[in-house]
Specification:
CATH architecture of the largest domain: 3-Layer(aba) Sandwich
Shape: globular
Number of domains: 2
Helix content: 40-55%
Radius of gyration: 23 Å
CATH class of the largest domain: Alpha Beta
Oligomer: single chain
């Protein structure tokens, strides 16, 4: 699908890009950041050079030169009378960074763009060996299925029941991760052009999926203290979105937890507006401070009103690509029917590994929590020592700090950090239309030494960005 962005939308996304150096070069770099982190998707149509220059108060020569650089580097294609469209160079992957971010092996670049833990070698290795021994029982079958192995679905259902939400295996469909599950749910329960309510900030891959499926993200701001019940109720009542994508437990990127009262209010408002709640629970079992979570959001709503999505990517290993959907049995049946035309199903071996991991899941979660607690502390201490002016609320769980920079400098900071060997996503990646440029997400999933080193480099990048700012005249 081709998106057309207005000059106003692009200006908002650019943030404060005017730092030292040729204006056209800095403008081109700012566009590269937005293309690389997905805010400007491949196929997006950019505003005409004259229109953009006039709106932003720039000389047309500056914009023309910036567009030319983007074309030369493979980020843009233009045709007379057709306009200029975003490209993603063939050599780039989904999370590839611009040329100025290129990896320097001697410098040992640090990737903070993805919040994901390394594989738990002992537990995952033991699970894989046991799964290999079990494989013979399934060798007479095709080796994949659309709904999931009965034993695995039962094990997943049991964990929901233990959390206070009675669940049977018929309410579970196994998927190839949470993103895969979300795509199937959106396809089934909404139509192109429908609006999907999302928090702002929210999980970037969810925004990508919503846009790719031609749905419209409808944002509701999430404050440092959490969800505003009155605003959520008003938006649901007035806009009546088809779906509402929410992360009530250790929200990504803020780490916030939705209180009981808000859960009840959201469920009631969604019921009144006929909105289906899509609940992302990928991090719900990664509490770090010993507190207990409220009952799952599905406990507050009618069975057909909520679809819950889970995954082992955050708790075990993203490379396992194992997730699931919990929903009313008729919804699961419809998802399976839809899946027949989307993919071939779940590999048996992956499911057997997941089943064995679940047998040691409490041990695994204890190890993960201990690891994340240490790394969160190192990050907090490093930021306090190196960049004390940045502000954040310490999360009770999850993977990251959502940091308020105090200025709309997230994209320039990401560029400056990359030149120092730290890849980090700008705050705008977590929002829509250029919002959140005053924030940045800093995960604490990598090792302690890398976290401390990254903070040293971020401090240098911050000094560069703040000292080189100049006015817009």
């Amino acid at each position: 699908m081709s998106y057309s962005f207005t000059a106003l939308q692009v200006e908002r996304m650019l943030g404060d890009w005017r730092v030292e150096g040729p204006a056209y070069s800095r403008l081109a770099e700012a566009f590269e950041v937005m293309i690389a982190d997905g805010r400007l998707p491949a196929g997006a149509r950019l505003p005409a050079e004259r229109t953009f220059a006039t709106h932003c108060g720039l000389s047309r020569n500056t914009v023309t030169a910036a567009y030319r650089v983007l074309r030369e580097q493979g980020y843009l294609t233009s045709g007379r009378g057709a306009g200029s469209f975003v490209l993603l160079p063939a050599t780039e992957q989904k999370h590839r960074i611009p040329s100025s971010w290129a990896a320097d092996q001697e410098r040992q670049d640090i990737d903070l763009a993805i919040a994901s833990l390394p594989a738990p070698e002992s537990i995952l290795g033991a699970a894989t060996r046991r799964a290999a021994l079990d494989l013979g029982q399934y060798s007479h079958l095709p080796g994949y299925d659309l709904v999931g192995a009965p034993e695995l679905r039962q094990a997943i259902a049991d964990r929901y029941t233990a959390r206070g939400l009675p669940t049977g295996p018929e309410q579970i469909m196994v998927s190839a991760g949470a993103d895969h599950a979300l795509g199937l749910v959106i396809r089934l329960l909404s139509r192109p052009g429908d609006s999907v309510l999302v928090d702002s900030p929210t999980y970037p891959n969810a925004l990508d999926t919503i846009r790719a499926l031609r749905r419209r993200p409808l944002t509701v701001g999430l404050g440092m203290d959490g969800w505003d019940t009155d605003v959520l109720e008003a938006v649901l009542r007035q806009e009546k979105p088809a779906l509402a994508y929410l992360m009530p437990d250790y929200h990504n990127p803020t780490g916030l937890v939705m209180p009981d009262g808000v859960r009840a209010a959201v469920a009631a408002a969604a019921r009144a507006s006929s909105t289906i709640l899509v609940v992302d629970e990928a991090t719900c079992e990664l509490g770090l401070d010993g507190g207990s979570l409220p009952l799952p959001l599905a406990s507050w709503a009618a069975p057909r009103q909520v679809v819950s999505i889970g995954s082992m990517s955050k708790t075990c290993w993203a490379g396992l690509r194992l997730g699931w959907v919990r929903a009313a049995t008729p919804v699961i049946s419809r998802l399976v029917d839809l899946r027949c035309v989307v993919d071939t199903g779940n590999p048996v071996m992956t499911q057997l590994i997941g089943l064995r991991v679940l047998e040691s899941y409490d041990e695994l979660l204890a190890e993960r929590r201990e690891m994340l607690l240490r790394r969160r502390q190192v990050l907090a201490e490093s930021l306090a020592r190196r960049i004390p002016q940045w502000r954040y609320t310490m999360p009770d769980g999850g993977f990251s700090l959502w940091v308020d920079l105090g200025a709309r400098l997230s994209s320039p900071l990401a560029l400056a950090a990359a030149r120092r060997g730290v890849k980090i996503l700008s705050g705008g990646r977590f929002g829509v239309d250029g919002t959140l440029e005053n924030h940045i997400r800093i995960p604490f999933a990598t090792d302690e030494e890398s976290i401390a080193t990254a903070c040293d480099r971020l401090a240098g990048a911050w000094r560069e960005v703040t000292s080189h700012r100049r006015g817009h005249a």
